[in-house]
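Before a computer can learn anything about folding, someone has to put a protein's shape into writing. The three-dimensional part falls to structure tokens, numbers that each stand for a local backbone shape. The protein below has been through that process, and both of its lines are reproduced in full.
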Amino acid sequence: MLTIIRSFSKHSRLPIRSKLSQAITQAQMSNPNLFKKGKSVPLQFFVSGGVLLLALQSGTAMADTPTDTAATAAPETSTTTPPVVKVATAPDKVDAMIVTGTRRSGGLKAVDSASPIQVLDSNTLKRTGQPDLIQAMAQNMPSFTAQAFGGDTANLTLSARLRGLSPNDTLVLINGKRRHTTSNLAVLGGPYQGGAAADLNFIPVSAIDHIEVLQDGAAAQYGTDAIAGVVNIILKKDTSGGSFSTTGGQYFDGGGRTGDASVNAGFAPNDASYVNVTAETKFHGRSDRGGIDPRVIDNTNLNKMPMLTSAGDYPYVNHISGDAAYHLNIFSVNAGYDFGNDTELYSFATYGEKTANAFENYRMPNRLPDIYPLGFSPKETISEKDFGVTTGIKGKILDAWNWDLSTTYGRDKSSIGVADSGNVSLYNDTGSTPLDFHAGEFTATQWTTNLDLSREFDVGFKTPVNVAFGAEYRRDGYEIGAGDPGSRYKEGSQSYPGFLLTDAGDHSRNNKSLYVDVSGSPIDKLKLDIAGRYENYSDFGSARIGKITGRYDFTPEIAFRSTISNGFRAPTLAEEYYSATNVSPTSAFVQLAPNSPGAALVGVNGLKAEKSQNYSFGFVFKPIPKATITLDAYQINIRDRIVGSGALYGSGGAINSPAVTAAILANGNALDPTVTQTGINIFSNAVNTRNRGAELVFTYSSDYGDYGRVDWSLAGNYNQVDVTKINQAPSQLLPQTLLDKVAISDLETASPKSRVNFGALWKVGPWSINLRESFYGASSEFGSEDGSAYYETKIKPKIITDLEVSNKVTKSVTVTLGANNLFNQYPNKISSELLAAQRAALDNAAVTVYPSFSPFGINGGYYYARLNYTF
């Protein structure tokens, strides 16, 4: 796998002859009669091989050519042929029709696609313990990693990422239509910093027929956000029957108590229509995996505040390190009506409400002794409402042209609160303070309208040429609402100050795009697809992007495929305009909006769009019946990648910059005078990065007669991220740098380079046993107390076992018992040197003893039971 990556990444023009020679040898091995003496070699073999390799070479040169034109986005359908493999399901499902990556009417067989796609069906998603779509995908896809723990409000909206890139680089579609994003930005440092992608957990798992994940750059096909790939969620369209499911579980070591109930039903109001509805309710309890806060065992503090020992759970009084508690209610509907004459009206929608709260750092008794004589533990709260609706009509005109006109509107609003807190300055100045605050609110909206047209032309090729083109108009909105007066008075409410009037604002932009896509087979066994897109953003100008995809089937058993594309991602409005104050008991850091007056004082003047080049090369191999192997190597180059800075100190750091303090004042912030460290964080186009990797998927089905059937699967991902360039820090910040060792490690090493899933699903009579062994490679992250010394936390490789046993009690009732992380494995703890430095400084950060970047979480094993009833 590594050899393929290294040779692939050189982009040499010399080895074309050797590559053809290797291809001939491999084809001859799979079909000895192909080049038998006396038998002519098929001309199309050389033509197609040359076309594919020349496309690779010319595409590389094109992508490496610098351009000042911003790259751009694309609409909600695509003409590339993505290769699909069912994960953890029966391999014969690879013959299922897919719609992602192709604009051909009627779709394409997964096994015949030309870009890597993995497909997760509804049963696979249900065979994961926690009723959580992000976790269900992460447990089944090695290249898809889920966030285990977030800081501040990010702990209330966890996200995920594909191929080690930002969550914002993966586009989410529902039934091929763009999904709106969350309003809750992940602000604090870590590998998911800056994430404000679609919140997958507002989509009921029971509503999903299957998910198609295109693991390839697809900005030319689907538009901005699709640098890492595309997640296309296909909803059920069943017109009869349904299911009811309920599950409950909790962590082996306590906390995380979870309950979920969902119902799905389909019906047909008449012969020409369908309606499929799903409702789900879920709750999840807190967990606590933190250590001792060094402030509460310090002798000096104990002498001053002897009542500390009477605080609840002493000395484990700080509960910030663990899951948030939440209650989620979600609903979805998918419907359509066939007018006849190839014309159909369709519509689908989702609606959800979530309330959640998470502990913040413990405040000592001397903060508000009259109100909280034993100290207090503030909680961050969120009340979130999310909905999206799509309506469209599609059909065929003149018996040749397929057309699809649709419009989609989505909105996510999060109201942020602080409970069991207080404002110290307000109490000192007025003699009273609220204990609960409205800290502000975020609102994200998106309205997208698409027109897509396609038809086939017979031009003498092996197959008709499919020509597709269309247009898209999108309007994005992002609003920050100020907190109530008490939450923003002076330093604000403890643990989470309210948003200031200078933070508040209502921002919007629009984007217009055109695309064209041409695909066909010029000769036998060769498939080509060329896509181009033009986009124009009201705030970032225009961009032109493209993609070339090719596949050649040497024999029915072996095929090669490759893609070359460039991409573009405009900054999210949240990345551009988010501004707030992030505090702990010992520090206060201001998150500056990149285009704010304060940011200009430290030399940052707004954001640019990211630009990318994607290359992939792989093969599909069917060595024996019922077995399929795919291997794809890839490289993703991103220029001017948008990342969060490291800690930039104004005071209390090993190195401090006067410009940082000036920027804080220019932003209108009044910081808590009792903290020992102050500074800023800011998003910027700080780096260029390169991802190199490979993905392997193997599926096989074996039948043992009376002993049942076993569906075997093996999926692996190797992904290495390198920072190839760090843009020079503005002179105002020197000698500090935009990215410290912590921020660089979040990009390069915080996710494992390698991950492998082995799965076996055994079905015999009424019983089924699903076993999954997941190998996680090593990962690491640097940490520092004040920027003077950095210590590396390392998580060693781990194997996590998931096991589920089900029995079909009756034709309609199935009972399941299972465990995620069966043997209760934990990651390695935070570096002892870093913990020692934090404890010596009486830093509350020492409460975090397990690394939040752990790819398999910090809570240990989760055990559950599930009851499913079908009708």
